[in-house]
Amino acid sequence: MWKFLRLLLAFLIAFFLAMILGGVLLVGTFTSAAIMLSQKDKSVSTSLAQGGWLYLPLSGKLREYEKSPIPSLSITINLFGGPKEKVPTLDEIRQALEKAAQEEKIQGIVLRMGDLSASPAQVQQIGRWLRQFKARSKKPIYAYGDYFTELTYYLAAYADTIAMYPRSGTLLEWNGLVSEQIFFKRLLDKWGIKPRLFRTGGYKSAAENITEERFSQTNKEQLTELLGDIWNEWVDTIAALRKIPPESLRSWTDTYIFFSPQEALQHRLVDTLVAWDDLERKHFTPSGKKDPAWVSYKALLAEKDKAEEYIALAYMEGAVGPEEEVSAEEWLPLLKKIEEDEKVKAVVLRINSPGGAVLESDKIARAIQRLRQRKPVVVSMSGVAASGGYYISAYANKIVAEPTTITGSIGVIALLLDLTDLAEKELYLRTDRIKVGGKYADFMSPFREPTLVEQQHMQNEIDQIYREFLEVVREGRRYPSVEAVHTIAQGRVWSGKDALTIGLVDTLGGIETAVKAAADLARLATYGIRTYPEGKWRWQKLLGDDFPFAQLWRQVQGSISPSFPQGPQLLCASCEIKVR
User: Does the active-site annotation cover 204?
Assistant: First the structure.
């Protein structure tokens, strides 16, 4: 126990020292960041004047949308170097591909594949946009990677030509998908921590890693189906794009763990083996020039839509809660602003959220219900729109999801922790209390076990919230009864493909499908797109995602917040699966 405490203390000291160091270095970073960022991107043109190839760097965490007052001034990138350009957001990719298809000076697209962190639904969306780009422009697409995972290879398969580094250390991973989770029950038992879970539905798996030693049978069932849907989608798509028999792609997972460059070429998974600098020189450098003719995606985003009427495209990404990325405090005024904007005739709400706080979810859902009375609202689901994310979606006129979108998880949980044994037996602490006003005044205390009566009160509250959740879905999705919703609810998560068959979504597709549906509902022949929300200062965006200890700190927060909610929550643990 003391080893753990020393480790925790060491982490906290290191974290705060890093924060102090970051504050000192930030002053220097402000004065030098613009110069250093411009120096890093010398090889990528910022102008369309000379024309060339649209260069899309796909290495890093893919976010849906980000509008910040300044570019990221990440301290570690500026001091120690990093990618030539950060990975564009999904919205930036959308705009760049649309304009590249129309711009005569763009010769084609080059996808520089790297360690891309994205959901299956997000890469499916980009793949569809690449297919539309080829159909509209007839221009070629190249994809290059030093290595490929199944996810990045799926995206690369949309290219006309896939190039791969030819020497040792390069591989193409092809061994299937896995979802792995750490379970803490035995550790908590050893420390004397007693979790008390309240939930509705046998499939509601949030906090299962706290109360169980392994996946429950129901969670195994839903995760197996989810991963199976993703894998089948990838195999079938790659087979069609690369002209490889799907049975070969399926059988290779039991023969190979990964392909060497030569094996990948032999099996027609890639088209050529070449180093990146040789590829730049031979294919993308104009005759008589030293540098390749790259055009940054940023150069295509300068021109804004000018229209009389607009569709609002609002990106809602992150957990739901007062202190989370999606909060009622931010979204209620924004939805009201969109509602009152006379030029905005319809709304597409792009949701990528595993849920969160009940109250916040309900407030935002009611605001969408009011907005719908004046303007059509279409939800476009990204990688995940489950639990609170689905609660928010339910009142839309239409819901569009990708086949691999994780959705559903209609259920509620609450977790109480009894820390009495930890405090008294491990830490040699004692607690005492004085109650005034009622015998349940100390009900939420972590230093005593709740009584059977108190547990029943909490379960009654959970059940009531669940009934309200069912009613929201019944009303918004026009099910005949709450009992009909209950049969497909109970905390179960579904892929978008399965969600379509049971009525949780209306159609399969991406942002472009949702935008067209909104335009049809609003009877718009021509329109522009306005993206929301507006820029907002946050220290994470200022310092960048790779600030020292920032990723570790987010992991700590992520493991604590969803697993130890302070009250009833609309959370989807299965939405946190990592596909690798």
Answer: yes
The amino acid present at 536, given as its one-letter code, is: K
Q: Which of 204, 345, 375, 497 is catalytic?
A: 204
Counting the structural domains of the chain, the total is 2
| Kind plus residue range of the DSSP H or E element containing 249 | helix 246-251
| Partners of residue 57 on adjacent β-strands | 112
131 and 50 assigned to the same domain: yes
Give the pairing type, strands 161-164 and 272-273: parallel
Based on the fold, state whether residues 511 and 410 are members of the same structural domain: yes
Residues 336, 473, single domain; the answer is: yes
Answer whether 25's CB lies under 8 Å from 311's CB: no
Active-site residue, from 387, 393, 409, 574? 387
Q: Is residue 562 part of a domain?
A: yes
Q: How far is CA 510 from CA 119, 292, 504, 527, 551, in A?
A: 13, 33, 16, 18, 29
Q: Is 223 helix (H, G, I), strand (E, B) or coil?
A: helix
> pTM for this structure?
0.83
Helices (H), 494-573: 496-501, 511-522, 539-543, 550-560
Backbone phi, then psi, for 157, in 5-degree steps?
A: -60, -20
Helix (H/G/I), strand (E/B), else coil: 492: coil
* Residues 293 and 161 occupy one common structural domain: yes
* Opening angle at CA 207, ends 204 and 210, nearest 5: 140
3-state secondary structure of 84: coil
* The token pair that represents 265 in the structure block: 């070429």
Spans in the chain with pLDDT lower than 70: 1-47, 49, 67-85, 302-305, 535-567, 571, 573-580
The tokens for 461 are 């509250």
Q: Which CATH number does the domain housing residue 67 bear?
A: 3.90.226.10
The domain containing residue 285 runs over which residues?
A: 31-175+256-300
Please, are residues 527 and 307 in contact by the beta-carbon 8 Å criterion? Answer: yes
What pLDDT, on a 0 to 100 scale, did the predictor assign at position 18? 53
CA distances from 190 to 137, 424, 538, 575 (A): 63, 13, 39, 29
**304 flagged as catalytic:** no
Q: How far is the C-alpha of 363 from the C-alpha of 572, rounded, in Å? A: 19
The predicted structure's pLDDT at residue 564: 35
Residue 6 lies inside a defined structural domain of this protein: no
In a domain, 514, yes or no: yes
Q: How far apart are CA 239 and CA 384, in angstroms?
A: 26
The DSSP string of 442-505 is TTT-TTSPPPHHHHHHHHHHHHHHHHHHHHHHHHHHT-S-HHHHHHH-TT-EEEHHHHHHTTS-
CA gap 111, 59 in Å, rounded: 10
My answer on whether 317 and 286 are in the same domain is no
**Same structural domain for residues 408 and 292?**
no
Residues 398 and 334 in one domain: yes
* Backbone torsions φ then ψ of 151, nearest 5 degrees: -65, -50
Same domain, 263 and 335: no
- Is residue 195, in this structure, part of any structural domain at all? no
